[in-house]
Design brief:
The protein is an alpha+beta fold. It has 16 helices and 16 strands. The strands form five sheets. Strands 1, 2, 3, 4, 5, 8, 13 and 14 form an eight-stranded antiparallel beta sheet that branches. Strands 6-7 form a two-stranded antiparallel sheet. The chain has a two-stranded antiparallel ribbon with strand order 9-10. β9 and β10 form a beta hairpin. The radius of gyration is 22 Å and the shape is globular.
Length: 496
Amino acid sequence: MGEKVVADRFDLDARHRFRARLHACLEALETLLRENRFAGPRDRIGLEVELCLADARGAPRMVNEDVLARMASGDFQSELGQFTLELNMVPRRLSGRVFDDLAEELRIALGYADRMAGEFGAALVPTGVLPTITAEQMAPGTFSADDRYTLLNDQIMVARGERLSVDISGTETLRETFESIAPESACTSVQLHLQVTPERFAPTWNAAQAAAAAQIAVGANAPFVFGRELWHESRPPFFLQITDSRPPEHAAQGVRPRTWFGERWIDSAADLFEENIRYFPALLPLCGEEEPLDVLDAGGTPLLSELALHNGTVYRWNRPVYAVADGTPHLRVENRVLSTGPTVTDMVANAAFYYGLVRALADAEQPVWHRLPFAVAEDNFFAACRHGIGAELTWPGRTGGLEPRPAAELVLDVLLPLAADGLDAFGVAAADRDHYLGVIEGRCRRGVTGAGWQTRVYHQAVADGADRNDALRALVRRYSELARSDAPVHSWPDGT
């Protein structure tokens, strides 16, 4: 790890105790699933939105603690970096005018946060990676004031045993090394939650995995990392490398990274939690007081805190979530694929496309995962990250074989009609369905995503004589201005 040495805070006994508790949690979960003790409403959704704070020049502004202290709202909280905030939306039923309602609440919440940030010389920028962030700004001193971030950082660095390396080649190349996971804070995303019954979990997760590439293709919005133009959606490869706790020799041996697409279709939510325990050593081996099997034997509902804690340190793009509300356990699929932004309308359109498509794929008589090899779904995912809406995706054809198709064509001809059917199955109002899926259609017909808009505006500024830094700052200022208009990104003018 260079000259810096980080001491492990946990002894072997603590790790053994935690691993034993993890296995007890998994046994309790399997019992809950087998006995079908889950109840409560299904088809409820929730959103988490991560946001950057930037100053008048478009550079990151490290004031989240001040902004949060000024707010009279518990809906916002800190994220890893001092220049980021997270908004947690209240869960709601996926039906009726849910998307219009969600959009209105998002506009109100983000407008309020923007006003509060303005009191400290900052403004919200809804994007996947703020283009003006520099590698030099990503140091341990930029962590938010929460011990869990420092503890997580220390444990990843102990496990790795040396500095973290980033090596991504796209339009340009980024090669850097870092002494901490602080650069992870550059990644800001939207997480989409869908609560499902146990029997629906596996079809929903499989469908979400199959849909991930299409989500990226139409929603890419992170073309720059540390001022370098990389992939259309650079967040996934960057996040994978900056959270990689594997020593290089373990990576060479095929040990799985903590940021993971997965490697197979599943039959149960328990499959994913079991993989977490089998493949990933605990980063935070902290045991609570609850003995889950004792609680279960007494007729109670265990919180499975250790299982949830460990699950939170395995960064699947579609993550399983077990939680207890009002004494009742439930399961959610947490979709972590999408970058934030560019606008509220764009983010809600992305959500409508995702929820509708996943419902239709999960309901299909011939599931797509019976015809699409898992490795092909993963290849699609990374092709979409690299090329965005210009990617070629492989999908089962009408005759049953696999066919490579341009992403925009596949979405227009196959996936958007499926998403419309899925939203109808949820009972979403036709006006919401047509309006928000129409935004996705507009992007496909014009071939424009947030990533495409950002790169075009940047290159135009450079062609007009701006140097790299000035072009990136001008890009962020113009982006922020148009994001506040809430016009969908495919309708934005290209000029600065």
